[in-house]
Structures are given as structure tokens and as C-alpha cells.
Amino acid sequence: MFLHIYFKSHKMLCMCILISVHFRYVVFHxxxxxxxxxxxxxxxxEGVHVSLGFFDDIIIPPESLQQPAKFDEAEQVWVWEYETxxxxxxxxxxxxxxxxxxxxxxxFIDTSPTGPSTADASSSTDTVETQRKEAPYTLVxxxxxxxxxxLSWWTNN
Length: 157
Known about the structure:
The protein is mainly β. It has one domain: CATH 2.40.50.140. The chain has one helix spanning 121-133, and strands spanning 2-9, 17-23, 35-44, 47-51, 58-60, 69-72, 77-84, 87-93, 98-108, 137-142, 149-150. Strands 3-4-5-10-9 form a five-stranded mixed beta barrel. A three-stranded antiparallel β-sheet has the order 6-7-8, with no helix packed on it. A two-stranded antiparallel sheet has the order 1-2. Residues 111-130 are annotated as: Disordered. Keywords: DNA-directed RNA polymerase, Nucleus, Transcription.
């Protein structure tokens, strides 16, 4: 959020224009093992993708889901096969559902632009497309503990 922008023109040898900008910014950096709540943005064979509304690069990989879990190809959702005395119940992780998860890892990738390379133009285009697909900061979550997962799974009785 910009608070103030000041323009000043100085008549010097270089004819410089100085701009003073005052602003505020928010840094998002959760602690490892911190419990967060978000919404399921989507599911894929790679895991459950979660959004916090202001940050979308969160993934919960299959090995970090409540077990046993399976990916339903037809519905494109993950399913927890919950066992009870009455038998197995399939609990679906649908898009838009509220989810509670633990932060277990984070990845920082330097996405700064690089200078021109000596490679041909087609391979440099592929490199640029690859850089655009990578998120500079990614969180890895887990719901493999009691109390974690969809909020609807853990209702108070």
C-alpha cells in the first residue's frame, strides 16, 4: 500500500528526477509446524492444492494425507477411506472445503531474471516458460494427524 509519493526535480548537470516513495508491505512467512486454515483450491495426483486467499502455492502431497487415501480420477478429488466399526466411509476432499493443515516444509526458488545465454532462441524460450511456472515460495503441508484435514470431519458433538 503506497502512503506517499513525492516527486522532486533538481536542475543539476544530469537533469535528475528524484522520487521518494513511502509504502507498507506485509511479509508472509509461517513457522514450520504452524497450523493454518485454508480452502481446497484443487486436487491432482500430486496432492491437494490449498489457498489461503492471499497465497495459493500450498500443496499437501499424497503421503501427507490421512491414510488410507486414494485419488478419484473420475471426480478429480482425494478420498480418505475412513474405517469404523460399521465399515469403511469415503470422505471426499472437495474443492472449496475448509481445511486445517500443518506446515511441514517450505521452498524458496530464486526467480530473478538472468542475462542472455549463448544457447539458441528456442531453448531460451523453453527456459523462460519453465521459470514462469515455478513459484518463488511454496509451502508443503500435512493433514496426517488427528484434528487436521477438512473441518467437517472433526465436528464437536
